[in-house]
Design a protein that fits this description.
This protein has 205 residues and is mostly beta strands. It has helices at residues 2-17, 37-40; strands at residues 22-33, 58-66, 70-85, 95-112, 117-134, 143-159, 164-179, 188-204.
Length: 205
């Protein structure tokens, strides 16, 4: 996690220290998954801990457009849920648990300008963290999972005036997951791939 934060900090520092090479095209953006289960599914999965792959239900972005036509876009998403279980019977101990997902990413894209619509192509890299904490070990164990993401991406946005755009993008997401649970008797690494569409809105200033 420290390496990712340091890398993103250096990139952002370079961006701000070389303001003169950028046009005044900054933006704040939000994305929304277009997979129905991202909104309708139960992140808990009905069990004692959640689905570690649901890590970015909604994303927040800060975009910087360079004078050479590059879009540099750090992103962050966060989701957390807390559940408390109180038994009416004294035979069982009450317990509580928390599921938390965090994602940090950096996107770099080449912009192809149009009159009202422009397209961009590039990719995102990032890392996500899933944490499951439970107060009573009788009902489960704490869990920590790390996910590393590489996602070639193609997108398009339509401008409604000079300061607002909406559009969509499709990314080919390659996700490597590593189970770092301390009590595990084995190391578990998994690789998943998916094609994910997203709807985005950006506010330029």
């Amino acid at each position: 996690m420290k390496k990712i934060i340091i890398t993103l900090s250096i990139a952002v520092s370079i961006l701000f220290s070389q303001e003169d090479i950028f046009e005044k095209n900054y933006s704040i953006g939000f994305d929304f998954h277009m997979f129905p289960q991202a909104f309708l599914g139960d992140p808990n999965g009905g069990g004692y801990y959640g689905d570690s792959e649901i890590v970015d239900l909604m994303g927040f972005y800060l975009s910087y457009e360079t004078s050479s036509g590059l879009l540099i876009e750090p992103g962050y998403s966060f989701y957390s849920e807390f559940t408390e279980v109180d038994y009416e019977s004294s035979s069982y101990d009450d317990y509580e648990y928390t599921n938390t997902w965090r994602t940090l990413s950096l996107g770099v894209f080449k912009i192809m300008e149009g009159e009202d619509v422009r397209t961009y192509v590039g990719g995102r890299i990032g890392k996500s963290w899933y944490e499951y904490d439970i107060s009573n070990a009788e009902f489960g164990e704490d869990e920590d999972l790390d996910n590393f993401m590489i996602a070639p991406t193609f997108g398009a946005e339509y401008f409604v005036g000079e300061n607002f755009s909406f559009g969509g993008e499709v990314m080919y997401k390659i996700l490597t997951s590593q189970d770092t649970e301390s009590s595990s008797i084995s190391d578990i690494t998994s690789l998943s791939t998916s094609v994910e569409p997203k709807f985005l809105v950006r506010f330029y200033f």
